[in-house]
Design brief:
This protein is α/β, with parallel strands linked by helices and 379 residues long. The chain has 15 helices and 13 strands. It has helices spanning 15-25, 42-53, 66-80, 86-89, 95-107, 124-130, 148-153, 177-189, 217-220, 229-232, 247-260, 266-275, 284-298, 327-338, 366-377, and strands spanning 29-30, 90-93, 113-118, 134-139, 159-165, 194-198, 223-228, 241-244, 305-306, 314-318, 340-341, 343-344, 357-361. The protein binds 4'-deoxy-4'-aminopyridoxal-5'-phosphate and glutamine. Glutamine binds at residues 14, 16, 33-34, 169.
Amino acid sequence: MHTLTSKLPHVGTTIFTVMSKMAAEYNAINLSQGFPNFPVNKELINAYHEVIDESFHQYMPMPGYGPLMVEVAEKIRTHYGRHIHPDSELLITAGATQAIFTAIQAVVHAGDEVVVLDPSYDCYAPAVELCGGRPVHVNLNADFSVDWNKVNDAITAKTRLIIVNNPHNPGGAVLSLTDIEALEAILDKHPHILFLSDEVYEYIHFDAPHSSANSREKLVNKTIVVSSFGKTFHVTGWKIGYLVAPEFIMSEIKKVHQFNVFCVNSTAQAALAKYLPQTDLSELSSFYKQKRDLFRNLIAGSKFELLDCKGSYFQVARYSEISDLSDVDFSIELTKKYGVAVIPISVFNRDKHDDKLIRFCFAKDNDTLIKAAEKLCKI
Ligand code: PMP
Ligand code: GLN
């Protein structure tokens, strides 16, 4: 019998796959995996039709399609006041997941430590482990804010990278300017550390502005910023995003990228290049704010306790008034018995601590949110 020693012995199938499958099996309303269920903007679909009829069916240049890169650089300039050189500081990727994986492979050496804030998005730690690095998990506070003293205490001479997700999935927290300044102070004190800023929900924030690393003079020279068109244009299945980093980091990332995917889907790049100039990304926050407010109001009378949601399209709720089950078992029960699929939060904690919290995705049409809320209010 052949055997294989696992490189990721503690990893199973992601919770998103597990819960979406269960939702389908039990015909539950799927508020688990984060993806929109409403139509994509007509202009984007039209742009796709146009490029399908044109000649965009062969390999694109390795770092990305030139006109798309120019448009992305322009968006970064208008939103963040940052002037990037698309040729040397930008890379179009097959979604944020590949962007993160590739960036980590490029900068983390065997034995390096990477600080990750839990609950953390599930692709960070395995990517670190696959290149022989060690994820150092620091727990966020109960409200998903960051204890920067804990982050500081986790740093050693081996720390290579700090990864922060802002706005935060699953917590819905958004870092304040004071947070960013605390991070800058830590990075100033430890010049050997690079920063990976996962900002896939950068255009979805509600009550306060979002401080992108793109807009911080002290960060841009040591930071890899991750963005995703999937989140911004409701096309998660297209798997397309991008990375911004200073040239000394980007040149190493490109070395990995060329042997990882080489280049990214040609038609999606060409369609986005046509569409981007027509878009106003500042409208996305108000679009999702209506959904957040609708969902929160609809379940305000239920037994779920709603935590703050300042950004992303996820709402976290405490269910301890309803059940003593673990969050994983409660999520299964909610799917099978009550017909609403959700994500348990403990799976994003390396120490698996369970605060009896679940995550709802509100990137859904209003009808879906209303139907889900009716079910949730009966519990
Ligand atoms: N980072 C975070 C925080 C995410 O929530 C997601 C996916 N929802 C990703 C990265 C991956 O994005 P993509 O689908 O573009 O790979
Ligand atoms: N990021 C999405 C979420 O948080 C899921 C993406 C995936 O399934 N890999 O729900």
